[in-house]
Structures are given as C-alpha cells and as structure tokens.
Amino acid sequence: MGFKCGIVGLPNVGKSTLFNALTATAAAEAANFPFCTIEPNVGRVGVPDARLDKIAAISGSKAIIPTQLEFVDIAGLVRGASKGEGLGNQFLANIREVDAIIKVVRCFIDENVTHVEDTVDPIRDAETIETELMLADMDSLEKRVNPLAKKAKSGDKDSKQQLDLIQRTLAVLEDGKPARTLEVSEDDNKAFQMLQLLTSKPILYVCNVDEESAADGNELSAAVDKMAAEQGANSVVISAQIEEEISTLDSDQDKQEFLETLGLEETGLTRVIRAGYDLLSLITFFTVGPKEARAWTIHKGDLAPQAAGAIHTDFERGFIKAETIAYDDFIELGGEQACKEAGKMRQEGKTYTVADGDLMLFRFNV
Asked: What is the pTM of this model?
C-alpha cells in the first residue's frame, strides 16, 4: 500500500532542496533558477517510529524495516500555470496522482536567491498555488458538464447524480473556495473522490525559513501558521538548507550533535514526515520475528482483513483471524511469549478495528 505526498510551490522556494534532504540523495537538482526540476522526482522515506526499534530489540530481530511514505517533487508552479504558463498542465497531471499536497512556501529573505514574484510574501504565494489549482479544477469540471447533462436528460440516474455533484462543486470553486470545503454526503463520497480534484486533497504547509529561525520560526512563518489554522490545515517550520546539511552527515550521533548546536530536538524532516503521515489519517501496525521487525501502513479505522491485505492480497482474501498484542503490553511484559502467558494475546476476527501500534500475526487459508 503506497501513499504519495506531492511537494509543490513556486520556483526557488526550496522544494528540491527539501526533496533532496527527505530522500538523502541529490536526485533532484537544486539550483537558483526556475524549473530546475523538469520531471517529477520520486523518493521513498521511512517514517520515524521509535516503537519499531524497541520491538526489534526485545525480539532480537535481525532486520528493521520501517513503513514508508512516497514524496514526489513536482516542477515549480507559476501564476497562470492552469492556462499553460511556465510548465503549464505538466505539473497538474503529476499532482492528480498524489494523495496529499505539501505546499512549500518561502519564509526567508535572501537577496542572492531570486523570487519569481520579485518580493517574498508566503501568503500571496500560497494563494497563487491555491488559485491555480482551483482554476484547473474548474476547467476539468466544466468540460464534463455538457456530456453529463445530455445523459441526465435521457434519464440516466448516475449521470444526474454526478452532474448535481459537479455543479455544487463548481459553485464552491467559483466562490473562491477549494473543493475540500464542499460538504459531501456518504452516498456521494465515492463519486466525489473519482473526480480527482486537486483542491480536494488534504494539504500541509511547509515554511522554509532561514537557519536562525529553524527552532521557533519567524514573522513570515507565523502568518502562514495562522492562515493554515483558519483553513483547518497544519504547518511545519523547517530550514531546508539545514536539513540538507544534516542529510550529508554519516552517523546518527553526528546528526544529533549538529541539531543540538542549533538548539533543535529533532530534524524538521521528521516533523514533515510525521505530519504527512497524520495528514493522510494513517496508522501503523507491526509484525515481528527473529528475521525482521516491520512496520505497516493502513488507514485509521481499517479492519483486520484490510491490515492483512497490506502485507499480501492473499492474506486478506483468505483471512481467518489475527493474533494481536497491544504495543504497551508487548513492551511492559517483554515479548510475545510473556504476553501469551499473561493472557494478553487476543484472537481477533474480521470485524476487529486495528489500533495504532498493534502487533499482529495473521492466520489465513487460500
């Protein structure tokens, strides 16, 4: 099960620098000119989770495999992109493929780094991004209206329902609001998701600040945080330059010492990855044994068979039961055998809702 977060923003805001640091590679060229990223770069990163290390230590697992998120670095957006300016619709198609959008906004002043709008204003930049995405959504929906209207007139109930949904969505967009603000009923939710609207995706603002502001942010990032809160979104403060420097250090000890000299407890990237994970309403369950301790990603609210399917589709299809231990019990009692003896290993069926941190062993028959 893969989950993608698309990194978008205007040129020269630090998108590619952030991507490089996230993936600890130089795959995305970071240069001081617009459109240095022509094709989307994709990188997978492990989600930091201290629980996995503890589980592995108790079980003596030889390998530790974290769950992962996929980040897509998408070419810089400019005003008028929805009408073909800059790289035009090339980036829009890439955004449609992701599950959530990370909007990187520039919150630092540096005369040596050009800005496509000549001045630094993260609120304006964020609004430019949102406007272009809304215009692209409107264009996409308007093209569907006439064909659906013809089918609806002929009595096609599905077309009539979809047409009504599109018209309500267009009204929201024309009012200057993103599609995610539309109240969608449970009956319409599947059809709404199938529209693949850019502004229906959850968003996270990443404020790229100067080194001195990495710990507490600055006035520019505070303004973004306020805007995000008003939209019901979250924001994270990082210094992409610092993160890139950290990514070049070899050992965890070197990284920690470097962070301490800057007055930081953890990397900004850890916060970004964690926030991206939360943004998509994901949780983690674990499998553990002598060969490996592994984290798996599922949606909050998924049932045991769906969790089994995250490992292999055969596990879900032939699901019988799940032997489950709560994380706290596993740590407190010191492992699987102790949990069995204490009666803390449970037999769960098809209706069990998996809890974050569950250790699971699936029984199946195909």
From this structure: 0.81
